[in-house]
Amino acid sequence: MKERLFTLLLFVVGPYTGILPTVAFPSNNHVRLHPAGGWHAVEITVQGRVTDKEKGEGIPGVNVVLKGTQKGTTTDVNGNYSIAINSTTDVLVFSSVGFGAQEITVGNQTSINVILESDSRTLGEVVVVGYGSQSRRNVTGSVAKVDMKQTENLPNTNVTQSLRGRVAGVQFTDSGRPGQNGSILIRGPRSLGGGNDPLIVLDGIFFNGSLADINPNDIESMEILKDASAAAIYGSRAANGVILITSKRGTTRKPTIRINAFSGVSEIGRTVKLLSPERYLQKTLDYRAQSGLPSDPANVASYLTTTEAANYKAGNTIDPWKAASQPGRIGSYDLSLSGRNDATNYYLSAAFTDEKGVILQDDQKRITLRANIENQVTNWLSVGMNATFVRRDLSGREADVASIYYSSPYGTWTYPDGEPTQYTVPEDQVSGQPIRAALLTKNEEIYNNLFSNFYGLVNVPFVKGLSYRVNYSPNYRWNHIYNFVRQDRRLPNNTTSANKYNQESFDWVLENIVTYNKQINPNHGFDLTLLYGRNHQQSESTTANANQLSSDALGWNSLTLGSTQTTTSTASKIDGISSMARLNYRFKDRYLLTLTARRDASSVFAANNKYATFPSAALAWIASEESFMRKASFVDLLKFRLSYGAVGNQAIQPYQSLSLSGITQYVFGDSGPTSVGIFPATMANSDLKWETTYTTNAAVDFSLFKGRLGGTVEVYNSDTKNLIVQRSLPTLTGYTSVLTNLGATNNKGIELTLNTVNLRKKNFEWSSNIVLSANKNKIVHLYRSDTNGDGKEDDDLANRWFIGQPITVYYDYVFDGIYQQGDQIPSGSQAGFVRLKDLNGDGKLDANNDRTIIGQGGQPKVRWGVTNNFSYGNLSLSVFVNAMQGWISDFILLDPNSTRSENSPGRALNQIDAGWWTADNKSNTRPSLVYTNPQGHNYYVSRNFVRIQDVSLAYNFPSKLVSKLHVTNLRVFLSAKNLHTFTDWPGTDPESGGTSKSSFYPMPRSYTLGLNLGF
């Protein structure tokens, strides 16, 4: 009884205290006394070395697993291993990426040396599939594994950067700013209003924080679940795909210390081209000439404002981008300690990242701590903890990019004493001074995230292959944004203000998982996974503002000093229940079947539709194992996969199905008290239910010529139904809209992944990785209405949703060049004005008949990426090219003078230098400076690009030198990111596609020098 209580105490207390029992085992066969039950079992220690057949060297990190269990170890840096088994009939499985797996029955052997042959890069690979892992060979769904080795020599501070262009069907975009998360799209958009972000799962648990919180150096593997069969195990949250991230564990018996560090500089890689001082003056002269005003170049100073004229005469000019930028810097420093023995596996790490963006005060500092600890209490019970804490500091008010766009090159940014001006050109106060807020504002912006998973794993002693795992995963996030604006000493009025925003979020997940693995006979085997769990999310926030503080001595720490004070607060909760069953069946190890069903309930949906069930099925046939394929000796692997399933989307805010009330404040009469009014704000929908995506996926996996050529070809078709949409209502109802289910969308596409070894000689190897994907999405139907009686369903013109067209399209007049002198010009137009096509030929332009779909936006038609890896001896070079093609975007700022673009060439404002028509320079693409766009049309440009994304040169020091230095590995690398982009895009970056003035953050180009060191 005491022994059972002792074991229970360790199970409960161990993960929290970190005090876990360890047992020292002698090297020979031995007997261990297990506390629970007091029964004895003989354990046999098997040890040996795993070597590479071609090189004769030990292979580190080889997985050595006891077949049919989760018990295993990995080889150390020299390829040595040691593992305890229970029976001479046990089978050990040796597997490693890039090598063919081997299975060896132990028998009477206590020393087993294994030689692995190079094989397909994915043939023996183990991948995470959700609530477990499988050999790549046995996977039936669409699971793409990110090769983290391809990015280990790159200055990636965000894990999402590893996805850019490297996984077929996955689109990642970001602005290049420090600490920004970016967006991820897997196999195209599906939803019109429910969100298209994928589900993030970290160490098997839903991760609701930012991907910027995860240290890339802590990641062991990253998998993308793309089809419904693979993702259905996550049910209601998996409609947009799933990203599985697994953190590192200890791999060697000897404690291993690793240092990863890189430091470098960044510069502006690409900006919006603004008017130079010379072009700014020419713009002023051309505009006046086209307006019929005097435009003598000798008198150009008289056409400028007083401020501009003074700077012009004094020879003072300013480049707005340079004036609002700073020298970019990037540094990352990571230290880890890891190891394992027969009882304990541990991985501890600490990392610090310091980034300075290329725009003034656009910075990030991040501290990340991680502790992964697992202890095998007995041979049937393990307990463990995966925990990480991150603190991201984004403090500092960055320069105003929108104001940079407008800044005249002849403006004044500071007074003689260094204080910022309020306006660079005070005579024209449309735009403020770009760095004024940065200089006057003290800002503190801190994000904290404590994410953990405490688990226990029981391998049932008397039922081989049966195990039970319990996960409890609390996640606490707290962040705040504080601002204080000091007094502008040049202004007489009180300009001080302060505000504080605080937010707290607490989530937890509790899961019970049962797995059973059984090999019935040589021909039949299966594994079963059952899950029941609950999840909870809650958050609250408070914002307090104060203006015109009577004293600025305390900054934001005493808002009561403000003459005007306001406060707002919010709170919300979400609860969910989940149950799941998955069966993997194997017949002759070449006919594979996977059946999955998940049932979810979420509080965000209406009372009538809290629950939904998401089933899936998948088949796979390893044809290369058939006898008739034996003559095709060049075929290493030929595998066919087919799957169909359903997944859901619950990406809506809580309480949206309920009738919500709004609050307003008002005053009756003069000097009366403030009254609070409550009114119905949204209409309830008791039938609101889940969006559901049904996907069919077919694929071929292959490996040829001893792994020299391998890859995957996949095709898929996805139908999303019951779209969650905010539907407009007639005003007479008293509401403007209601959240409801309507319509359907379709996504179909093809994906290709190729891994090739192009050349392999004595000390030289050239290999390539190629990914290519094409996706086409369309709206199948919306409201099923036909108000005009033409026999076709009506489009939603207001939202630009068109039946049979992609979700994001551009609908407008068709640009047909520029009217030139001598053309037949219609009334109301003139030479230099835009010519639009009269599509119906009635001799006039009208919105109903002369607009059409211009093209597709939001996502490209084709994405591709090519990585070439070269190695010669200890030197390696990697070059990655990323490309997206077949998409466009509107770009209204190309309109030189209209209310839509807010460009105004007759005022003291800068603008994009895209050219303009003049009588001497008869452009056929850009209108004159007096064209004011009476039809309100837009301008459209290609977002196609080809980018040299990453280049890395690395050198591994020779093993003899490494041994003399008493280290296990030493590598240095030099890398460059975003070297050059080939594109016609007029903005800062075609991939992120920002088209508004406030989105024009320059894309940085960075160069870094790094070091990897192990002890």
Describe the secondary structure blueprint for this structure:
Layout: H1 2-17, E1 30-33, E2 40-52, E3 63-66, E4 72-74, E5 80-85, E6 91-96, E7 99-105, E8 114-116, E9 126-128, E10 133-135, E11 143-146, E12 170-173, E13 183-186, E14 199-202, E15 205-206, E16 219-225, H2 228-231, E17 242-247, E18 256-270, H3 277-290, H4 306-314, H5 320-323, E19 328-340, E20 344-356, E21 363-376, E22 381-393, H6 401-406, H7 436-440, E23 441-459, E24 466-485, E25 497-521, E26 524-549, E27 562-587, E28 591-602, E29 611-622, E30 635-649, E31 661-667, E32 674-680, E33 691-704, E34 709-721, E35 724-728, E36 737-741, E37 744-760, E38 764-781, E39 809-812, E40 815-818, E41 834-836, E42 852-856, E43 862-872, E44 875-885, E45 888-890, E46 940-942, E47 945-956, H8 959-964, E48 969-983, E49 1003-1014
Parallel strand pairs: 2-8, 14-17
Antiparallel strand pairs: 1-2, 2-5, 3-4, 3-6, 6-7, 9-10, 11-16, 12-13, 14-15, 16-17, 18-19, 18-49, 19-20, 20-21, 21-22, 22-23, 23-24, 24-25, 25-26, 26-27, 27-28, 28-29, 29-30, 30-33, 31-32, 33-34, 34-37, 35-36, 37-38, 38-43, 39-42, 40-41, 43-44, 44-47, 45-46, 47-48, 48-49
